[in-house]
Amino acid sequence: MKSTIELAGSENKSEAKRIVTTLPSATEIVSLLGLEDRLVGITHECNYPPSVRNKQVVMRSVFDAQKMNSKEIDDAVLEFVSNGRSIYEIDEEILQSLNPDLIITQELCEVCATPLQVVAKSISRLKSKPKILSLSPRNLEDVLENVLEVGRSTERIERAFEVVASLKQRIDYVKEKCLGDSGLHRPSVFCLEWLEPLYCSGHWMPEIVKYAGGKELLGRYGEPSVVIAWEEVMKANPEVIFVTVCGYSVERALSEISRLTERQGWSDLEAVKNDRVFVLDSPSYFSRSGTRLVDGLEIMAFLLHPDLFPHYELPNQAAYSLAKGRYL
Questions:
Q1: I need a surface site. Which of 111, 258, 308, 323 has the fewest CB within 10 A?
Q2: How far apart are CA 217 and CA 206, in angstroms?
Q3: Can you tell me whether residue 302 is helix, strand or coil?
Q4: Where are the beta strands (DSSP E) in the chain?
C-alpha cells in the first residue's frame, strides 16, 4: 500500500501555498524565508516573530504547563509517554479547514513538539493529503541544513542559501574568536536543562558551549538530555552554570530557581563562589532548534569571554545574573 505521507525533498518542485508548522522553530524558519503570508497554521507555543500570533492554532498541549511547576510537568510527561500517548493533540477540524499542502513537523523530541506519528495519523483522515517535511536536527549544522530543506520544499532555496551564509558567517566569527587562541582559558560549564529533576543539556547545546569557548562537563552532544544526580554536578564543580530550562523564560526559571539554589552544597560550587551563574532565555535562544540558536551562541560567547566581544550588546532580558540579581 502506498503511504499517504510524502516526505518533502528536492524531487518535489511544487510550490507550497498553505503551510502548517507543528513546532515553533519551523515557524521561525518559514517566516525568515519570507513565507509568513503562506503560513496558515501554527502551534500554541509559536510566538516568534510576534506577527505570527494571529495565525490559526492547530496544535496544543493536552495539559496546561503554564499552571504547573517543573516537577509536575515532568511527572505528566512521563505518564503520557510511558502509556504511549502524545502530550500534544491536533485539532483535525481546523486542520481540515486550512487544507495545507505542506506540514512541517519533527521526529527529534516527543516533548518539544508534535511527533511525526501524531501528524501522520491526523493527515490520514484528511481529504487532501499534504506533503510532510520532518526535521530532526541534532546539532547546529543540522539546523542550518533544515533551513535549506525548508527552502527547497517551498521554492525559496536562494533565500535559504542567503540566510545560511549569513548564519555561518556569524558562527565562524565566534569560533575564530573563541577557538583561534590556543592560550585562551576555556572555563568548564554546566548547562541545566530542567530544574526538577535535574537534566543535563543535549543535542546542540554542548556544541554551542564549545564554539563559545567553554567546556561542557555533563552535556550529551547530539543526544537527548537525561536526568542526572546532583552529586554529579557537585563532583564536576563547573566554573560557569547556565540555567537554560527548556521552554522557560528567564522570569519563569527564576520563579523556581530555589529548586536549584537550596540544594545541599550549592554555595560550595566554583560557579557560585565566582558569581558566574546565569539564567538564560531558553525558548528564545537555546531550546528551540531554529536559527536563533546562533543568537544563543553569541550570548554565551559574550558571557564566557566578554573581553573578546567589547562591542556586543545582549538582547533585552536574554541573560540574568543570579549574583547581581538583575538582567545584564
A1: 258
A2: 9
A3: helix
A4: 19-21, 39-43, 56-61, 88-90, 102-106, 131-135, 188-194, 199-200, 202-203, 215-216, 220-221, 240-243, 277-280, 319-321, 326-327
DSSP-derived letter for residue 23 is S
Q: Which CATH superfamily is domain 19-136 in?
A: Nitrogenase molybdenum iron protein domain (3.40.50.1980)
Our CA dihedral for 276, 281, 286, 288, rounded to 10 degrees, sits at: 160
316: Cβ contacts below 8 Å, ≥ 6 apart:
327
Rounded Cα gap, residues 148 and 212, in angstroms: 24
Measured distance CA(41)–CA(103) in Å, rounded: 9
Per-residue cell: 188: 568548564
Q: How far is CA 22 from CA 116, 147, 287, in A?
A: 9, 16, 15
* Residues contacting 219, CB < 8 A, separation 6+: 190, 191, 200, 201, 202, 205, 206, 209, 225
The closest of 105, 12, 11 to 58, measured between CA atoms, is 105
Per the listing, cell 522553530 goes with 25
Name the CATH superfamily, with its identifier, for domain 183-322.
Nitrogenase molybdenum iron protein domain (3.40.50.1980)
How far from chain centre, in Å, is Cα 26? 11
Question: What pLDDT shows up at residue 8?
Answer: 41
Query: How far apart are alpha carbons 77 and 14 in whole angstroms?
Result: 38
Q: Give residue 269's region: left, alpha or beta (phi > 0; psi -120 to 50).
A: beta
High-pLDDT (> 70) share of the chain, %: 89
For 81-133, the pLDDT digits (tens) are 777 777 888 888 899 899 999 999 876 555 554 555 666 666 666 667 789 89
Query: How crowded is residue 254: how many other Cβ atoms within 10 Å of its Cβ?
Result: 15
The answer on pLDDT for 171 being more than 90 is yes
